[in-house]
Inverse folding.
Protein backbone atom coordinates (compact mmCIF):
# COMPACT_ATOMS: atom_id res chain seq x y z
CA UNK A 1 0.00 0.00 0.00
CA UNK A 2 2.76 2.50 0.91
CA UNK A 3 4.41 1.86 -2.46
CA UNK A 4 1.17 2.68 -4.29
CA UNK A 5 0.89 5.79 -2.12
CA UNK A 6 4.49 6.77 -2.94
CA UNK A 7 3.83 6.62 -6.68
CA UNK A 8 0.52 8.40 -6.25
CA UNK A 9 2.24 11.15 -4.27
CA UNK A 10 4.76 11.65 -7.06
CA UNK A 11 1.97 11.89 -9.65
CA UNK A 12 0.21 14.50 -7.54
CA UNK A 13 3.33 16.61 -7.05
CA UNK A 14 4.09 16.53 -10.74
CA UNK A 15 0.49 17.30 -11.63
CA UNK A 16 0.18 20.28 -9.30
CA UNK A 17 3.44 21.71 -10.67
CA UNK A 18 2.48 21.48 -14.32
CA UNK A 19 0.09 24.39 -14.55
CA UNK A 20 0.32 24.41 -18.32
CA UNK A 21 -0.76 20.78 -18.46
CA UNK A 22 -3.76 21.44 -16.23
CA UNK A 23 -4.92 24.39 -18.29
CA UNK A 24 -3.94 22.81 -21.60
CA UNK A 25 -5.93 19.66 -21.11
CA UNK A 26 -8.99 21.66 -20.07
CA UNK A 27 -8.90 23.54 -23.36
CA UNK A 28 -10.46 20.97 -25.63
CA UNK A 29 -13.33 19.88 -23.35
CA UNK A 30 -14.21 23.50 -22.62
CA UNK A 31 -14.14 24.29 -26.31
CA UNK A 32 -16.39 21.31 -27.06
CA UNK A 33 -18.74 22.25 -24.28
CA UNK A 34 -19.10 25.88 -25.31
CA UNK A 35 -19.02 25.47 -29.09
CA UNK A 36 -21.26 22.44 -29.33
CA UNK A 37 -23.34 23.24 -26.30
CA UNK A 38 -24.26 26.78 -27.14
CA UNK A 39 -23.94 26.36 -30.88
CA UNK A 40 -26.28 23.42 -31.15
CA UNK A 41 -28.48 24.04 -28.14
CA UNK A 42 -31.29 25.68 -30.04
CA UNK A 43 -30.91 23.52 -33.14
CA UNK A 44 -30.83 20.06 -31.62
CA UNK A 45 -33.79 18.34 -30.09
CA UNK A 46 -32.88 15.13 -28.26
CA UNK A 47 -35.33 12.47 -29.48
CA UNK A 48 -37.45 11.06 -26.71
CA UNK A 49 -36.02 13.42 -24.14
CA UNK A 50 -37.94 14.47 -21.10
CA UNK A 51 -37.41 18.11 -21.69
CA UNK A 52 -33.68 18.56 -21.13
CA UNK A 53 -31.93 20.65 -23.72
CA UNK A 54 -28.82 19.69 -25.65
CA UNK A 55 -26.30 21.41 -23.40
CA UNK A 56 -27.60 19.45 -20.42
CA UNK A 57 -27.32 16.30 -22.44
CA UNK A 58 -23.77 17.23 -23.46
CA UNK A 59 -22.27 18.03 -20.03
CA UNK A 60 -21.88 14.40 -18.83
CA UNK A 61 -20.29 13.51 -22.18
CA UNK A 62 -17.75 16.30 -21.90
CA UNK A 63 -16.93 15.40 -18.29
CA UNK A 64 -16.32 11.82 -19.43
CA UNK A 65 -14.21 13.15 -22.30
CA UNK A 66 -12.06 15.15 -19.95
CA UNK A 67 -11.53 12.16 -17.66
CA UNK A 68 -10.84 9.88 -20.63
CA UNK A 69 -8.19 12.08 -22.25
CA UNK A 70 -6.40 12.89 -19.02
CA UNK A 71 -6.31 9.30 -17.83
CA UNK A 72 -5.07 7.80 -21.11
CA UNK A 73 -2.45 10.52 -21.26
CA UNK A 74 -1.36 9.90 -17.65
CA UNK A 75 -0.97 6.19 -18.38
CA UNK A 76 1.09 6.86 -21.48
CA UNK A 77 3.30 9.19 -19.42
CA UNK A 78 5.17 6.05 -18.32
CA UNK A 79 6.96 6.33 -21.64
CA UNK A 80 8.47 9.62 -20.52
CA UNK A 81 9.73 7.89 -17.41
CA UNK A 82 11.21 5.25 -19.66
CA UNK A 83 12.88 7.83 -21.90
CA UNK A 84 14.15 9.97 -19.06
CA UNK A 85 15.45 6.90 -17.26
CA UNK A 86 13.35 7.37 -14.14
CA UNK A 87 11.50 4.10 -14.71
CA UNK A 88 14.76 2.20 -14.06
CA UNK A 89 15.03 3.76 -10.62
CA UNK A 90 11.56 2.43 -9.83
CA UNK A 91 12.10 -0.98 -11.39
CA UNK A 92 15.39 -1.69 -9.61
CA UNK A 93 13.80 -1.06 -6.21
CA UNK A 94 12.64 -4.05 -4.16
CA UNK A 95 8.99 -3.58 -5.15
CA UNK A 96 6.80 -5.58 -7.51
CA UNK A 97 5.82 -4.29 -10.90
CA UNK A 98 2.18 -4.76 -9.94
CA UNK A 99 2.56 -2.19 -7.16
CA UNK A 100 4.24 0.24 -9.55
CA UNK A 101 1.50 -0.25 -12.12
CA UNK A 102 -1.28 0.20 -9.56
CA UNK A 103 0.37 3.31 -8.13
CA UNK A 104 0.65 4.80 -11.57
CA UNK A 105 -2.98 3.92 -12.31
CA UNK A 106 -4.32 5.45 -9.13
CA UNK A 107 -2.23 8.58 -9.71
CA UNK A 108 -3.45 8.91 -13.28
CA UNK A 109 -7.06 8.33 -12.26
CA UNK A 110 -6.84 10.99 -9.55
CA UNK A 111 -5.57 13.67 -11.93
CA UNK A 112 -8.21 12.63 -14.46
CA UNK A 113 -11.04 12.92 -11.93
CA UNK A 114 -9.78 16.35 -10.87
CA UNK A 115 -9.82 17.46 -14.52
CA UNK A 116 -13.34 16.07 -14.88
CA UNK A 117 -14.41 17.89 -11.73
CA UNK A 118 -13.21 21.17 -13.24
CA UNK A 119 -15.62 20.66 -16.13
CA UNK A 120 -18.40 19.75 -13.73
CA UNK A 121 -17.87 22.95 -11.77
CA UNK A 122 -17.64 24.96 -14.96
CA UNK A 123 -20.91 23.54 -16.22
CA UNK A 124 -22.57 24.58 -12.97
CA UNK A 125 -21.29 28.09 -13.63
CA UNK A 126 -22.82 28.23 -17.08
CA UNK A 127 -26.17 27.39 -15.67
CA UNK A 128 -26.62 23.65 -15.46
CA UNK A 129 -29.13 22.82 -12.74
CA UNK A 130 -27.66 21.33 -9.57
CA UNK A 131 -28.66 17.74 -8.99
CA UNK A 132 -28.96 16.16 -5.57
CA UNK A 133 -25.86 15.27 -3.57
CA UNK A 134 -26.76 11.65 -4.24
CA UNK A 135 -26.64 12.32 -7.96
CA UNK A 136 -23.27 13.99 -7.60
CA UNK A 137 -21.86 10.96 -5.81
CA UNK A 138 -23.11 8.66 -8.56
CA UNK A 139 -21.50 10.85 -11.21
CA UNK A 140 -18.30 10.94 -9.16
CA UNK A 141 -18.22 7.15 -8.84
CA UNK A 142 -18.46 6.78 -12.61
CA UNK A 143 -15.74 9.38 -13.13
CA UNK A 144 -13.44 7.41 -10.83
CA UNK A 145 -14.13 4.19 -12.71
CA UNK A 146 -13.49 5.81 -16.10
CA UNK A 147 -10.27 7.25 -14.69
CA UNK A 148 -8.97 3.92 -13.40
CA UNK A 149 -10.10 1.97 -16.46
CA UNK A 150 -8.41 4.27 -18.97
CA UNK A 151 -5.27 4.95 -16.92
CA UNK A 152 -4.72 1.20 -16.93
CA UNK A 153 -5.47 1.26 -20.66
CA UNK A 154 -2.83 3.97 -21.15
CA UNK A 155 -0.26 1.92 -19.23
CA UNK A 156 -1.08 -1.14 -21.31
CA UNK A 157 -0.45 0.88 -24.47
CA UNK A 158 2.70 2.48 -23.07
CA UNK A 159 4.09 -0.95 -22.20
CA UNK A 160 3.91 -1.85 -25.87
CA UNK A 161 5.27 1.43 -27.19
CA UNK A 162 8.95 2.22 -27.64
CA UNK A 163 8.72 6.00 -27.52
CA UNK A 164 6.33 8.92 -27.89
CA UNK A 165 6.25 8.71 -31.71
CA UNK A 166 3.14 6.55 -31.65
CA UNK A 167 1.30 8.92 -29.35
CA UNK A 168 -0.49 10.87 -32.08
CA UNK A 169 -1.51 7.60 -33.70
CA UNK A 170 -3.03 6.36 -30.46
CA UNK A 171 -4.83 9.64 -29.89
CA UNK A 172 -6.34 9.78 -33.38
CA UNK A 173 -7.13 6.15 -33.99
CA UNK A 174 -7.90 4.84 -30.52
CA UNK A 175 -8.85 7.58 -28.08
CA UNK A 176 -10.95 9.73 -30.42
CA UNK A 177 -12.98 6.74 -31.68
CA UNK A 178 -13.58 5.66 -28.08
CA UNK A 179 -14.88 9.14 -27.37
CA UNK A 180 -16.89 9.39 -30.60
CA UNK A 181 -18.53 6.00 -30.18
CA UNK A 182 -19.60 6.54 -26.59
CA UNK A 183 -22.83 8.47 -26.83
CA UNK A 184 -21.07 11.48 -25.32
CA UNK A 185 -22.16 13.84 -28.10
CA UNK A 186 -25.39 12.25 -29.26
CA UNK A 187 -27.86 9.61 -28.04
CA UNK A 188 -26.86 6.06 -28.83
CA UNK A 189 -30.27 5.28 -30.36
CA UNK A 190 -29.82 7.86 -33.08
CA UNK A 191 -26.72 6.11 -34.43
CA UNK A 192 -26.93 3.81 -37.49
CA UNK A 193 -27.88 0.33 -36.46
CA UNK A 194 -24.54 -1.27 -37.36
CA UNK A 195 -22.64 1.17 -35.12
CA UNK A 196 -24.69 0.45 -32.01
CA UNK A 197 -22.94 -2.88 -31.17
CA UNK A 198 -19.59 -1.06 -31.32
CA UNK A 199 -20.93 1.52 -28.92
CA UNK A 200 -22.12 -1.15 -26.55
CA UNK A 201 -18.63 -2.74 -26.56
CA UNK A 202 -17.11 0.56 -25.54
CA UNK A 203 -16.57 0.88 -21.77
CA UNK A 204 -16.82 4.67 -22.00
CA UNK A 205 -20.47 4.39 -23.12
CA UNK A 206 -21.37 3.02 -19.70
CA UNK A 207 -19.34 5.73 -18.01
CA UNK A 208 -21.09 8.49 -19.97
CA UNK A 209 -24.53 7.01 -19.29
CA UNK A 210 -23.69 6.52 -15.62
CA UNK A 211 -22.63 10.16 -15.20
CA UNK A 212 -25.71 11.22 -17.15
CA UNK A 213 -27.91 9.26 -14.78
CA UNK A 214 -26.22 10.92 -11.82
CA UNK A 215 -26.52 14.46 -13.16
CA UNK A 216 -29.79 14.34 -15.10
CA UNK A 217 -31.60 11.46 -13.48
CA UNK A 218 -32.20 9.71 -16.81
CA UNK A 219 -30.00 7.52 -18.96
CA UNK A 220 -30.38 5.35 -22.04
CA UNK A 221 -28.88 2.39 -20.19
CA UNK A 222 -29.92 1.31 -16.72
CA UNK A 223 -27.40 2.62 -14.14
CA UNK A 224 -26.81 -0.82 -12.65
CA UNK A 225 -25.97 -2.20 -16.06
CA UNK A 226 -23.62 0.76 -16.50
CA UNK A 227 -21.96 0.07 -13.16
CA UNK A 228 -21.56 -3.64 -13.84
CA UNK A 229 -20.25 -3.16 -17.37
CA UNK A 230 -17.81 -0.37 -16.52
CA UNK A 231 -16.71 -2.09 -13.32
CA UNK A 232 -15.97 -5.32 -15.18
CA UNK A 233 -14.12 -3.40 -17.93
CA UNK A 234 -12.02 -1.67 -15.29
CA UNK A 235 -11.00 -4.96 -13.71
CA UNK A 236 -10.14 -6.45 -17.10
CA UNK A 237 -8.15 -3.36 -18.06
CA UNK A 238 -6.14 -3.46 -14.82
CA UNK A 239 -5.34 -7.13 -15.41
CA UNK A 240 -4.25 -6.46 -19.01
CA UNK A 241 -2.27 -3.39 -18.00
CA UNK A 242 -0.53 -5.22 -15.16
CA UNK A 243 0.28 -8.16 -17.42
CA UNK A 244 1.73 -6.03 -20.22
CA UNK A 245 3.63 -3.78 -17.83
CA UNK A 246 5.20 -6.82 -16.20
CA UNK A 247 6.39 -8.03 -19.59
CA UNK A 248 7.54 -4.60 -20.76
CA UNK A 249 11.25 -4.27 -21.35
CA UNK A 250 13.23 -1.23 -20.39
CA UNK B 1 34.13 -12.03 2.79
CA UNK B 2 33.23 -12.04 -0.87
CA UNK B 3 30.81 -9.33 -1.95
CA UNK B 4 30.17 -10.57 -5.46
CA UNK B 5 30.71 -13.95 -7.07
CA UNK B 6 30.17 -14.23 -10.80
CA UNK B 7 30.36 -17.69 -12.28
CA UNK B 8 30.23 -18.28 -16.05
CA UNK B 9 27.64 -15.53 -16.50
CA UNK B 10 26.33 -15.28 -20.06
CA UNK B 11 23.77 -13.10 -21.81
CA UNK B 12 22.65 -13.54 -25.39
CA UNK B 13 20.32 -11.29 -27.36
CA UNK B 14 19.36 -13.43 -30.35
CA UNK B 15 22.60 -14.10 -32.22
CA UNK B 16 24.57 -11.54 -30.27
CA UNK B 17 26.46 -12.74 -27.21
CA UNK B 18 26.73 -9.57 -25.16
CA UNK B 19 28.36 -11.21 -22.16
CA UNK B 20 30.26 -14.42 -22.82
CA UNK B 21 30.84 -16.72 -19.88
CA UNK B 22 32.56 -14.30 -17.53
CA UNK B 23 33.69 -15.21 -14.02
CA UNK B 24 35.18 -13.07 -11.28
CA UNK B 25 34.99 -12.41 -7.57
CA UNK B 26 34.95 -9.13 -5.70
CA UNK B 27 36.09 -8.85 -2.10
CA UNK B 28 34.16 -6.84 0.44
CA UNK B 29 35.35 -3.23 0.55
CA UNK B 30 37.02 -3.43 -2.83
CA UNK B 31 36.64 -0.99 -5.73
CA UNK B 32 36.42 -3.18 -8.77
CA UNK B 33 36.40 -1.80 -12.30
CA UNK B 34 35.04 -3.22 -15.52
CA UNK B 35 37.07 -1.46 -18.21
CA UNK B 36 36.28 -1.73 -21.88
CA UNK B 37 34.97 0.07 -24.94
CA UNK B 38 31.29 0.79 -25.47
CA UNK B 39 29.38 -2.32 -26.40
CA UNK B 40 31.86 -4.59 -24.60
CA UNK B 41 29.17 -5.91 -22.26
CA UNK B 42 29.83 -3.81 -19.15
CA UNK B 43 26.34 -2.39 -18.77
CA UNK B 44 24.78 -5.76 -19.60
CA UNK B 45 26.83 -7.30 -16.79
CA UNK B 46 25.71 -4.58 -14.37
CA UNK B 47 22.09 -5.02 -15.49
CA UNK B 48 22.24 -8.73 -14.76
CA UNK B 49 23.89 -8.24 -11.37
CA UNK B 50 21.24 -5.66 -10.45
CA UNK B 51 18.42 -8.02 -11.55
CA UNK B 52 17.20 -5.78 -14.39
CA UNK B 53 18.13 -8.45 -16.94
CA UNK B 54 17.94 -12.19 -16.56
CA UNK B 55 21.12 -14.05 -17.46
CA UNK B 56 20.92 -16.59 -20.29
CA UNK B 57 23.11 -18.92 -18.25
CA UNK B 58 25.57 -18.88 -15.39
CA UNK B 59 25.23 -17.86 -11.81
CA UNK B 60 26.01 -14.85 -9.66
CA UNK B 61 25.82 -14.03 -5.98
CA UNK B 62 25.58 -10.45 -4.76
CA UNK B 63 26.17 -10.05 -1.06
CA UNK B 64 25.70 -13.82 -0.81
CA UNK B 65 22.29 -13.73 -2.54
CA UNK B 66 21.59 -15.52 -5.82
CA UNK B 67 20.51 -12.99 -8.48
CA UNK B 68 18.15 -15.49 -10.12
CA UNK B 69 16.54 -16.80 -6.97
CA UNK B 70 15.96 -13.81 -4.71
CA UNK B 71 15.65 -10.65 -6.78
CA UNK B 72 14.19 -8.54 -3.99
CA UNK B 73 16.98 -9.66 -1.66
CA UNK B 74 19.59 -8.52 -4.18
CA UNK B 75 17.76 -5.25 -4.83
CA UNK B 76 17.72 -4.40 -1.14
CA UNK B 77 21.44 -4.90 -0.78
CA UNK B 78 22.56 -2.87 -3.80
CA UNK B 79 22.58 0.78 -4.74
CA UNK B 80 22.95 1.73 -8.36
CA UNK B 81 23.84 4.78 -10.41
CA UNK B 82 22.84 4.17 -14.00
CA UNK B 83 24.78 5.28 -17.03
CA UNK B 84 21.87 7.45 -18.19
CA UNK B 85 20.34 9.87 -15.75
CA UNK B 86 17.44 8.44 -13.75
CA UNK B 87 16.19 11.38 -11.69
CA UNK B 88 12.75 12.94 -11.82
CA UNK B 89 13.53 16.46 -13.02
CA UNK B 90 10.16 17.81 -11.99
CA UNK B 91 10.83 16.95 -8.35
CA UNK B 92 13.31 18.57 -5.98
CA UNK B 93 16.46 16.78 -4.83
CA UNK B 94 14.86 16.15 -1.46
CA UNK B 95 11.72 14.72 -3.06
CA UNK B 96 13.77 12.43 -5.27
CA UNK B 97 15.52 11.14 -2.16
CA UNK B 98 12.23 10.83 -0.31
CA UNK B 99 10.67 8.86 -3.17
CA UNK B 100 13.63 6.49 -3.10
CA UNK B 101 13.48 6.09 0.68
CA UNK B 102 9.79 5.26 0.53
CA UNK B 103 10.33 2.71 -2.25
CA UNK B 104 12.91 0.98 -0.05
CA UNK B 105 10.48 1.17 2.87
CA UNK B 106 12.78 3.12 5.18
CA UNK B 107 10.75 4.32 8.20
CA UNK B 108 9.99 8.05 8.21
CA UNK B 109 12.30 9.17 11.03
CA UNK B 110 15.32 7.23 9.76
CA UNK B 111 14.51 8.24 6.20
CA UNK B 112 14.53 11.97 6.87
CA UNK B 113 17.65 11.76 8.96
CA UNK B 114 19.50 9.77 6.29
CA UNK B 115 18.34 12.04 3.47
CA UNK B 116 19.83 15.03 5.24
CA UNK B 117 23.01 13.13 6.02
CA UNK B 118 23.46 11.95 2.43
CA UNK B 119 22.71 15.37 0.93
CA UNK B 120 25.33 16.84 3.28
CA UNK B 121 27.80 14.19 2.19
CA UNK B 122 27.51 15.20 -1.48
CA UNK B 123 27.28 18.90 -0.56
CA UNK B 124 23.82 19.46 -1.95
CA UNK B 125 22.01 20.41 1.26
CA UNK B 126 21.80 24.08 0.21
CA UNK B 127 20.03 23.16 -2.99
CA UNK B 128 17.87 20.37 -1.65
CA UNK B 129 14.60 22.20 -2.38
CA UNK B 130 15.47 23.16 -5.96
CA UNK B 131 13.95 21.23 -8.83
CA UNK B 132 16.43 18.79 -10.32
CA UNK B 133 15.97 20.33 -13.77
CA UNK B 134 17.91 23.35 -12.48
CA UNK B 135 20.90 21.15 -11.55
CA UNK B 136 24.16 20.85 -13.48
CA UNK B 137 25.43 17.48 -14.72
CA UNK B 138 27.85 17.09 -11.84
CA UNK B 139 25.21 17.92 -9.23
CA UNK B 140 22.85 15.38 -10.75
CA UNK B 141 25.53 12.71 -10.59
CA UNK B 142 26.22 13.52 -6.96
CA UNK B 143 22.53 13.39 -6.16
CA UNK B 144 22.25 10.02 -7.84
CA UNK B 145 25.16 8.69 -5.79
CA UNK B 146 23.56 10.04 -2.60
CA UNK B 147 20.30 8.40 -3.58
CA UNK B 148 21.99 5.09 -4.34
CA UNK B 149 23.45 5.11 -0.82
CA UNK B 150 20.27 6.11 1.00
CA UNK B 151 19.18 2.60 1.90
CA UNK B 152 22.70 1.65 3.08
CA UNK B 153 23.48 -0.93 0.41
CA UNK B 154 26.33 -3.39 0.82
CA UNK B 155 27.37 -2.94 -2.80
CA UNK B 156 27.26 0.19 -4.93
CA UNK B 157 27.12 -0.10 -8.72
CA UNK B 158 28.37 2.86 -10.72
CA UNK B 159 27.80 2.58 -14.46
CA UNK B 160 30.08 5.08 -16.21
CA UNK B 161 29.88 7.51 -13.28
CA UNK B 162 31.73 10.39 -14.93
CA UNK B 163 30.49 10.06 -18.51
CA UNK B 164 30.02 13.47 -20.06
CA UNK B 165 31.35 15.44 -17.09
CA UNK B 166 34.07 18.08 -17.29
CA UNK B 167 37.54 17.21 -15.93
CA UNK B 168 37.15 19.26 -12.77
CA UNK B 169 33.83 17.64 -11.86
CA UNK B 170 35.28 14.23 -12.63
CA UNK B 171 38.15 14.81 -10.21
CA UNK B 172 35.72 15.94 -7.58
CA UNK B 173 33.52 12.91 -8.09
CA UNK B 174 36.51 10.57 -7.86
CA UNK B 175 37.32 12.06 -4.49
CA UNK B 176 33.77 11.33 -3.32
CA UNK B 177 33.94 7.76 -4.50
CA UNK B 178 37.27 7.14 -2.82
CA UNK B 179 36.11 8.76 0.42
CA UNK B 180 32.93 6.67 0.44
CA UNK B 181 34.89 3.52 -0.04
CA UNK B 182 37.42 4.41 2.67
CA UNK B 183 35.00 5.75 5.29
CA UNK B 184 32.04 3.45 4.83
CA UNK B 185 33.88 0.36 3.63
CA UNK B 186 31.33 0.02 0.87
CA UNK B 187 32.10 -2.35 -1.99
CA UNK B 188 32.00 -0.54 -5.31
CA UNK B 189 31.79 -2.02 -8.77
CA UNK B 190 32.15 0.51 -11.54
CA UNK B 191 32.23 0.38 -15.29
CA UNK B 192 34.19 2.84 -17.34
CA UNK B 193 35.84 3.31 -20.66
CA UNK B 194 38.20 5.94 -19.25
CA UNK B 195 41.64 4.43 -18.60
CA UNK B 196 42.62 7.12 -16.13
CA UNK B 197 39.43 6.59 -14.16
CA UNK B 198 40.02 2.87 -13.78
CA UNK B 199 43.67 3.50 -12.95
CA UNK B 200 42.91 6.12 -10.33
CA UNK B 201 39.96 4.49 -8.56
CA UNK B 202 40.10 0.75 -8.83
CA UNK B 203 41.82 -1.74 -6.60
CA UNK B 204 41.39 -4.28 -9.35
CA UNK B 205 40.38 -3.98 -12.98
CA UNK B 206 38.87 -6.50 -15.34
CA UNK B 207 39.43 -5.59 -18.96
CA UNK B 208 36.40 -6.65 -20.92
CA UNK B 209 36.18 -6.86 -24.68
CA UNK B 210 33.40 -8.31 -26.81
CA UNK B 211 31.75 -9.87 -23.80
CA UNK B 212 34.85 -11.59 -22.47
CA UNK B 213 37.27 -10.73 -19.71
CA UNK B 214 40.68 -10.61 -21.36
CA UNK B 215 42.72 -9.62 -18.29
CA UNK B 216 42.10 -9.00 -14.62
CA UNK B 217 44.48 -7.71 -11.95
CA UNK B 218 45.50 -4.57 -10.10
CA UNK B 219 46.19 -1.63 -12.43
CA UNK B 220 49.88 -1.72 -11.45
CA UNK B 221 50.25 -5.40 -12.25
CA UNK B 222 48.39 -5.07 -15.51
CA UNK B 223 50.67 -2.27 -16.59
CA UNK B 224 53.85 -4.03 -15.58
CA UNK B 225 52.68 -7.08 -17.51
CA UNK B 226 52.82 -5.24 -20.82
CA UNK B 227 56.37 -4.04 -20.28
CA UNK B 228 57.88 -1.08 -18.65
CA UNK B 229 57.94 1.72 -21.19
CA UNK B 230 56.26 2.36 -24.48
CA UNK B 231 57.72 4.04 -27.53
CA UNK B 232 55.25 4.93 -30.23
CA UNK B 233 56.66 5.47 -33.70
CA UNK B 234 54.59 6.96 -36.46
CA UNK B 235 55.92 5.73 -39.77
CA UNK B 236 54.78 4.76 -43.26
CA UNK B 237 56.77 1.55 -42.77
CA UNK B 238 55.12 0.72 -39.47
CA UNK B 239 54.20 -2.80 -40.46
CA UNK B 240 57.72 -3.84 -41.37
CA UNK B 241 59.23 -2.09 -38.39
CA UNK B 242 56.93 -4.03 -36.08
CA UNK B 243 57.86 -7.30 -37.74
CA UNK B 244 61.59 -6.84 -37.97
CA UNK B 245 62.71 -4.88 -34.95
CA UNK B 246 64.56 -6.93 -32.34
CA UNK B 247 66.95 -6.18 -29.51
CA UNK B 248 67.59 -7.79 -26.12
CA UNK B 249 65.79 -4.94 -24.37
CA UNK B 250 62.76 -4.93 -26.64
CA UNK B 251 59.92 -6.91 -25.18
CA UNK B 252 57.56 -6.69 -28.12
CA UNK B 253 56.12 -4.54 -30.88
CA UNK B 254 52.60 -4.15 -32.19
CA UNK B 255 51.40 -2.29 -35.20
CA UNK B 256 48.09 -0.64 -36.04
CA UNK B 257 46.96 2.26 -38.17
CA UNK B 258 50.41 3.48 -39.21
CA UNK B 259 51.85 3.32 -35.71
CA UNK B 260 54.25 0.93 -34.08
CA UNK B 261 54.03 0.50 -30.34
CA UNK B 262 57.32 -0.84 -29.07
CA UNK B 263 57.47 -2.10 -25.52
CA UNK B 264 60.91 -1.95 -23.98
CA UNK B 265 62.84 -1.62 -20.76
CA UNK B 266 64.25 1.81 -19.79
CA UNK B 267 63.38 3.64 -22.96
CA UNK B 268 65.49 6.69 -22.04
CA UNK B 269 68.71 4.65 -22.19
CA UNK B 270 67.87 2.88 -25.41
CA UNK B 271 66.34 5.64 -27.45
CA UNK B 272 69.40 6.36 -29.58
CA UNK B 273 69.96 2.69 -30.22
CA UNK B 274 66.35 2.29 -31.17
CA UNK B 275 66.48 5.19 -33.62
CA UNK B 276 69.58 3.81 -35.26
CA UNK B 277 68.01 0.36 -35.49
CA UNK B 278 65.06 1.78 -37.40
CA UNK B 279 67.25 4.14 -39.45
CA UNK B 280 69.69 1.37 -40.37
CA UNK B 281 66.97 -0.48 -42.24
CA UNK B 282 66.12 2.68 -44.15
CA UNK B 283 62.70 3.24 -42.61
CA UNK B 284 61.43 6.74 -42.10
CA UNK B 285 60.10 8.07 -38.84
CA UNK B 286 57.35 10.69 -38.95
CA UNK B 287 57.25 11.16 -35.19
CA UNK B 288 58.25 9.39 -32.04
CA UNK B 289 57.09 9.56 -28.44
CA UNK B 290 58.00 7.88 -25.18
CA UNK B 291 55.71 7.26 -22.25
CA UNK B 292 55.10 5.02 -19.30
CA UNK B 293 52.52 2.31 -20.03
CA UNK B 294 48.86 2.96 -19.33
CA UNK B 295 45.86 0.67 -19.22
CA UNK B 296 45.34 1.68 -22.83
CA UNK B 297 48.48 -0.30 -23.67
CA UNK B 298 47.17 -3.21 -21.67
CA UNK B 299 43.99 -3.14 -23.70
CA UNK B 300 45.95 -2.92 -26.94
CA UNK B 301 48.17 -5.78 -25.84
CA UNK B 302 45.29 -8.11 -25.11
CA UNK B 303 42.98 -7.23 -27.98
CA UNK B 304 45.30 -5.99 -30.70
CA UNK B 305 43.14 -2.88 -31.05
CA UNK B 306 43.24 0.57 -29.59
CA UNK B 307 40.37 1.30 -27.30
CA UNK B 308 39.62 4.85 -28.40
CA UNK B 309 39.19 3.76 -32.00
CA UNK B 310 36.97 0.94 -30.97
CA UNK B 311 34.93 3.29 -28.89
CA UNK B 312 34.29 5.72 -31.73
CA UNK B 313 33.36 2.82 -33.97
CA UNK B 314 30.98 1.40 -31.43
CA UNK B 315 29.37 4.76 -30.81
CA UNK B 316 28.76 5.22 -34.52
CA UNK B 317 27.24 1.80 -34.79
CA UNK B 318 24.98 2.55 -31.86
CA UNK B 319 23.81 5.76 -33.47
CA UNK B 320 23.01 3.99 -36.69
CA UNK B 321 21.13 1.24 -34.94
CA UNK B 322 19.18 3.50 -32.62
CA UNK B 323 18.46 6.83 -34.24
CA UNK B 324 15.55 7.53 -31.94
CA UNK B 325 17.35 7.56 -28.62
CA UNK B 326 19.00 10.90 -27.66
Amino acid sequence: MDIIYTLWLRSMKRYLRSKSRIVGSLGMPVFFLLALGFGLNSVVQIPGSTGENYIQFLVPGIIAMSVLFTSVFSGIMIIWDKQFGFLKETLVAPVSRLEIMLGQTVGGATTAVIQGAFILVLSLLIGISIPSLYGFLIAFLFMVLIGICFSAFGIAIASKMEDMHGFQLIMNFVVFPIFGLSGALFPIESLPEWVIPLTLLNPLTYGVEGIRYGLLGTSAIHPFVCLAALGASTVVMIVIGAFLFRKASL
Amino acid sequence: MTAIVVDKLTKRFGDLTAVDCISFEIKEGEIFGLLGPNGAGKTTTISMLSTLLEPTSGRALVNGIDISKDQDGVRKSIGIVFQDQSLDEELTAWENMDFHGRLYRIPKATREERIDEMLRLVELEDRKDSLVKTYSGGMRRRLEIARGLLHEPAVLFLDEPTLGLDPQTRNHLWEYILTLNRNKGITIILTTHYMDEADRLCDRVAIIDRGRIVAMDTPANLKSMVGEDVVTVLSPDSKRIAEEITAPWIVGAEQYDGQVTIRLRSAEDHLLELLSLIGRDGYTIASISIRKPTLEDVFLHYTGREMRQEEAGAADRMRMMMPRRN
